[in-house]
Amino acid sequence: MSRAQEPHRPFLPFGNPFRMILPKGTHLSPKLLALLNTFEETLAARLKKLQPADKEDVLRLSWMVSAMVALCEIHTDVKTLITELELPVSDWEDKWIDVYLANSVKLLDLCISFSSEVARLKQGHLYLQCVLHNLSSSSSNQFVRARSSLDGWSKHIASKNPRLDNCFAVMDSLVQMLDEPKIKNSSKGKVLMRAMYGVKVVTLFICSIFAAAFSGSPKKLLDLPVPGSYLWAGEFMAIQTFVNTEIRSIHSSSRLTILKELETVDTRANKLYPIVQEDGVELVETGVLKELTLDLKNSVEIFSQGLDHLAKEVDRFFQIVLTGRDALISNLRIGGDPFDQVQGGNIKKDQMVR
Q1: Looking at the whole model, is its pTM more than 0.90?
Q2: Cβ 166 vs Cβ 109: under 8 Å
Q3: At what angle do helices 94-135 and 187-215 cross, to 10 degrees?
């Protein structure tokens, strides 16, 4: 795939973190080179599969679910690579461990922020359920109750989630940490750091999209340049340019929200509002109320199902990061493979100890 034209790059005051991790003159054994190439080719394939079919797919909940699934797969891929490198934790340098632990706790913070926003949107869904319930009744004050629920929905959706402010700061700090530690005497370490760089770039890209979708603003979208020496660089630049361009275009149209299903629900809720006013009763006899209520019901069901699927995948990503972090900490004490399976089942977000 030809490399897409690079978008405007933001000023990076901390220097150039995008230098090659494997400098000229570095030689890898055929086995290490094969492991690295397989990892990078797999990453390129996952990015290609994630490329939206058209611009209408961008910021749909179904695409965001696919993005989170891809992120889970990529983080699982790097754990598999570490195991195949046969690089026990006793051989890890302190600076590698520090970087991994620092990055992982920041990713957990992002998951918590995203989960809180999904939960907030689900709370708004309750207002719409009340609207649908009231409009399906024959009570004399059905319109009064429906109007109250619609007012509650509008206020809830217009409110801001303070946790999202924290996720922007977290992403800024992760950008600062893209500059991997210099590896001098370990070929396996160089392979590991190069792979981790790819994981971090793609993770930042996807988290940046989630932050834009949930906040309704593309101001914090990241345009990350990637050297062409990476086998996944072309696919990454193509999807980053396509998705970021579409998100900025959506925002420039002055929509209330840039999350597609949420926009559909809100538009249909607003169409119902005039009917629940005092002069809207006449429209009941024409069938307009029934038609608009059915439209809202269908869009609410799609919205609710999408939120459920997204919540599940965000939680799965949280568990992947958390179990990997716990496995590394455990093996720092006893030695062995960095990512031996952690026993004890899933750990809830509110049980996380830093």
Answers
A1: no
A2: yes
A3: 20
